[in-house]
Design brief:
By secondary structure, the chain is mainly beta. The protein has one domain. Helix content is 12%, strand content 34%. The strands form three sheets. Strands 3, 4, 7, 8, 9, 10 and 11 form a seven-stranded mixed sheet that branches. It has a two-stranded antiparallel ribbon with strand order 1-2. The protein starts with 23 loop residues before the first strand and ends in a 9-residue tail after the last helix.
Length: 184
């Protein structure tokens, strides 16, 4: 299957994951989303194992149904399967996502429920510490390691959870073993 203008990598159908995000325009302001385009990350574990992971992002990283937003219908991001209002704060925070994803090998990654994992780094925003939870799934597709960032949003405090190292997750995937589960 040949790549089209909306693909960076040739993953075939890829369950409808977007590889190239179009900019969002509202009231004469353009919000570029190219920082969320698909990309690959090369990770090296402490043991020296190397992993190439192909990363895609969901629109939940910059859009959210938020009852507190006035006139949210006027801010609709027209994503075919799940149109939601564009959320400026999530958008601004999303600019950090490529760096967060690149740093996952040394981050405090944890089980986030279901098939998801997450990381919750701290960041300063207007002089205040903000915890930015990034939820993602990791899987194999077309014999490649894939990561899809399902959502990213600010929290008031960091969750207290046990670490699951990204290298353990990737190693299990490559060996066809079950992924690490939440520990009590």
């Amino acid at each position: 299957m040949a790549k089209n203008k909306y693909q960076i990598f040739n993953f075939g159908h890829d369950d409808g994951k977007v590889q190239i995000w179009k900019a969002y325009e509202k009231d004469g302001v353009t919000y570029e989303l190219n920082h969320l385009n698909a990309h690959e990350v090369d990770y090296t574990s402490k043991e020296g194992d190397k992993y190439r992971v192909y990363v895609t992002y969901s629109h939940h990283c910059f859009a959210k149904d938020d009852p507190s937003m006035e006139n949210q219908k006027g801010w609709l991001y027209a994503y075919d399967k799940d149109p939601r209002p564009f959320h400026v704060r999530r958008y601004e925070l999303s600019k950090n996502l490529p760096n967060v994803i690149e740093g996952l090998m040394s981050a405090h990654t944890f089980h986030a429920g279901g098939d998801s994992y997450a990381v919750c780094p701290a960041k300063l925003e207007n002089g205040e510490e903000v915890f930015y939870q990034v939820a993602f799934v990791v899987y194999r597709s077309n014999r490649k390691l894939r990561m899809h960032v399902k959502s990213a949003y600010p929290l008031d405090k960091r969750p207290k959870v046990k670490k699951v190292g990204l290298s353990n997750i990737l190693k299990a995937l490559l060996k066809g073993k079950p992924l690490p589960k939440r520990q009590a």
